[in-house]
Each structure stands twice: as structure tokens, then as C-alpha cells.
Design a protein that fits this description.
Elements: H1 19-23, E1 38-43, E2 48-55, E3 60-67, H2 69-75, H3 80-102, E4 111-117, H4 121-138, E5 142-146, H5 147-153, H6 155-158, E6 165-170, E7 175-182, E8 185-191, H7 197-207, H8 221-229, H9 254-271, H10 282-310, E9 320-324, H11 331-343, E10 347-349, H12 353-356, H13 360-373, E11 394-395, H14 397-403
Parallel strand pairs: 1-4, 4-5, 6-9, 8-11, 9-10
Antiparallel strand pairs: 1-2, 2-3, 6-7, 7-8
Helix pairs in contact: 3-4, 5-13, 7-8, 7-9, 7-10, 8-10, 9-10, 10-11
Length: 414
């Protein structure tokens, strides 16, 4: 989702409820005995307010989420102060719904895990502030969570995936390839040098005014592009994938967006329509853009797999590629990645779409993973801060580039 850096003075500052008033609203279940570790996860890194209670066996005992998508569709992107206010208005209710649904009393929780990095500063602040009040009141350990780490580990909630494995995280705010060697042990192989693929898809959808398209008016930009692309010809426009000569595993999408903008401007002139009207060739543009993004992501991922196998960082016979993040729900991009994993004899695993986008379950599960490993579990929260920008793991992308892995060309017949 596009981030709009403008202020919005349309909301009044909310009243702050004391934590004990919040806790008094819960129903308690004194006769129920929980033998497993239980973690409450809280997520407010962008525009979704989410919470969940998960146990150490992977059972989701309760969850709740409030999406801000409809609000931000009207403004054409996320306005951070608006997102902040909506988090403030909904976080208490969402956490209460998740805990109540779990039939766990707050005193039975083993810990509280919350996203503290990376994300929108104003949004992260709401989740952290609320969580610290709760931690103080309940006297529970606090587990600060890296949003990308949570996405990467979600698959282990659903499948028996052993370390190490390769992860591709693609969303509206992130694009990276990393080798996951442990719960908090990541080697960063490549990342976007500019914008994220989801951000680009949103911007193209906005430039095509797809919110005015009768079939796409309630969809996010990425979903609108995927839907419309099914009706278009991906070869109608010749758009070259970026960084074709680069030997590393980094990504770039801003140049592709610039090329697409020029195509749209040219077609508007040819069709004699104003900016903001729907082009007759919109479906062809959507198809070409989606195909080019898919090919770019697939090639960089192919290179990462080959690098890891060459350096014996991944198994030669049963390597696993995990793909997560909001853009991972795009089925066309998944099919492109299936071609790569088939050629490299890897297993492709993706969480279900509802766990690819931001949610409280992945935060709670990351808390469980850290609790079991004894990593990053805080009993003193003094000095804890949110971090809007924070890299994941140890960056070895230069080493990947120096290896200059030759990536064979694959036929992307999707």
C-alpha cells in the first residue's frame, strides 16, 4: 500500500484507559488448565490492528483483526496519522476479542509478543505503548518482534520445516531474500534497492485509476492488478525486467514503474483521454507489469538458490523455499516461482493467503519460537523502543554479488 506523507488533523486524541480497567473486562476460566506455553501476539506495524493467542504446539486459540483497507483506499494510500488513530481506536477491542475467544485468562499467558520493527513509526508506537502497559500490569515477559522474522517463521506453525531454509519476503513495504539458519539467525542475500513490489503494484493501479473500474473498486492495488491481468495479454507491451546483467540477488522496481508510467501517458495521448480515466488497454498493461515483476522476482530467487547450494548453505536434494508477505498471495508470481523450484529441485512452501498478510498469529508464533529458544525474552522493558527501519540478519549481499552466479534462462510459460 502506498504511504502518503501528509498530516491529517481529522481525529481528536483518544482518552487513555488505565490497564486495570481493560483487564476487568475479561471473562476468566478458572476450571481450564493450560499445560502449554501461551503467547499473546500484537501487530500494528502498518495498517492492520491484529492480535492472537497461540500455544507452543501451533494451536491458534483466539484471533482478531481490524483492517483499515477501506479507509486508505479512499485516500489512495496510507496516511500515517490516520493509521495511528485507527490503531488507537481499535487495539483494546481487538486484543480483548482475541484473548476472550481463546478462553485464556490474561494471568495464564506465558508472555506478550509485539511487533516493534520495522514499520510505520506512528503505528508501531501504538502497539508498543499498549503492550508495555499490559506487560507491566500482568507482570509477564515481553518479546519484541521483528516483523520480517515473523513472516519468515510463520511456515513452521503449519509445516515441519527444519533449519536452514531460504525465504523470499515480498510485500507492500519489503522485498528480500534471506537464509534462515535459526529462530534469530538470518543471512540477508538480497533486498530491494528502492521500492517494494507491492508498493509498485499499488502505484500502477492508482495511476491506472483502477479504483474507478467496476470490477476493482473494492480491491487493493495489488489485487486489482492481478484480477485485471487475467483479461489482458502479457506480451502486448514489451517491458524488460530490470537488472538483467546484475549478478547479485538484489531487486529494483522503481525503473519498472517509471517505464510503466511512460506507457500509460503514451496510451492516454493515443486514446485521447485525461489522466484519471480508464484506458482500454488497462488489462494489457496490468498483465505486462505483473509478468515482468514475476520474471524479475523469479530470476533473483533462482540466483539465491544456486548461491546457497554452491556454498553448501542449503541441502542439494531437499532444499526448501518459503515465500511469504502480502505479494506472496499473488498466484501468478507463485507460478513463476514454481518454475524455479522445479528446475532447482526445491520444495516451494507458502502460508495460506490470510497468513501471508499482516496478522497477530505470526507475531504470537514468533513469540513461541523465541520463548522455546530462550532468545530475546525480556523481563525488564526499560529502554525498549520501536525501530521504523531495521535490517534483517547479517547482510552478505556483497559476497553474493562477488560470487557472480550464472543463472540459466528458464521459460516462463505461466
Amino acid at each position: 500500500m502506498l504511504i502518503l506523507n501528509k498530516t491529517a488533523g481529522v481525529f481528536s486524541k483518544p482518552s487513555r484507559r488505565k490497564p486495570y480497567e481493560f483487564l476487568r473486562s475479561f471473562n476468566f476460566y478458572p476450571g481450564k488448565l493450560f499445560l502449554h506455553k501461551l503467547v499473546l501476539g500484537i501487530e500494528t506495524s502498518c495498517d492492520d490492528t491484529a492480535a492472537a493467542v497461540v500455544d507452543e504446539t501451533g494451536n491458534v486459540l483466539g484471533e482478531a483483526i481490524h483492517s483499515q483497507t477501506e479507509v486508505h483506499l479512499k485516500t489512495g494510500g496510507i496516511v500515517p496519522p490516520v493509521a495511528q488513530q485507527l490503531h488507537r481506536e481499535n487495539i483494546q477491542r481487538i486484543v480483548q476479542e482475541a484473548v476472550s475467544a481463546s478462553k485464556v485468562s490474561p494471568s495464564e499467558l506465558s508472555a506478550i509478543a509485539t511487533t516493534v520493527k520495522p514499520g510505520l513509526a506512528l503505528s508501531l508506537g501504538v502497539g508498543l505503548s499498549f503492550s508495555l502497559q499490559l506487560v507491566h500490569q500482568l507482570k509477564k515477559p515481553f518479546i519484541p518482534i521483528h516483523h520480517m522474522e515473523a513472516h519468515a517463521l510463520t511456515i513452521r506453525l503449519l509445516n515441519k520445516v527444519e533449519f536452514p531454509f531460504l525465504v523470499l519476503l515480498i510485500s507492500g513495504g519489503h522485498c528480500l531474500l534471506a537464509l534462515v539458519r535459526g529462530v534469530s539467525d538470518f543471512l540477508l542475500l538480497g533486498k530491494s534497492l528502492d521500492i517494494a513490489p507491492g508498493d509498485m503494484l499499488d502505484k500502477v493501479a492508482r495511476r491506472l485509476s483502477l479504483i474507478k473500474h467496476p470490477e476493482c473498486s473494492t480491491m487493493s492495488g495489488g489485487k486489482a492488478i492481478e484480477h485485471l491481468a487475467k483479461q489482458g495479454n502479457k506480451l502486448h507491451f514489451d517491458i524488460k525486467p530490470p537488472m538483467q546483467r546484475a549478478k547479485n540477488c538484489d531487486f529494483s522496481f522503481s525503473g519498472l514503474q517509471h517505464v510503466t508510467d511512460k506507457i500509460i501517458m503514451q496510451k492516454e495521448k493515443e486514446e485521447g483521454i485525461q489522466k484519471g480515466q480508464i484506458l482500454s488497454s488497462a488489462a494489457h498493461i496490468a498483465a505486462a507489469v505483473q509478468h515482468t515483476i514475476a520474471c524479475h522476482i523469479a530470476k533473483r530467487t533462482h540466483g539465491a538458490i544456486l548461491f546457497c547450494k554452491q556454498r553448501h548453505l542449503l541441502s542439494q536434494s531437499n532444499a526448501v523455499l518459503v515465500v511469504s508477505g502480502g505479494v506472496a498471495s499473488n498466484l501468478y508470481i507463485r507460478k513463476a516461482l514454481e518454475i524455479v523450484t522445479s528446475a532447482t529441485k526445491c520444495t516451494l512452501l507458502c502460508p495460506p493467503p490470510r497468513l501471508c498478510t499482516d496478522n497477530g498469529i505470526m507475531i504470537a508464533w514468533n513469540g513461541i519460537e523465541r520463548l522455546r529458544a530462550g532468545v530475546g525474552v525480556l523481563h525488564n522493558t526499560e529502554g525498549i523502543r520501536y525501530e521504523p527501519k531495521c535490517p534483517l540478519g547479517v547482510d552478505i549481499s556483497e559476497e553474493v554479488g562477488e560470487a557472480a552466479i550464472k543463472v540459466p534462462r528458464l521459460k516462463m510459460e505461466i
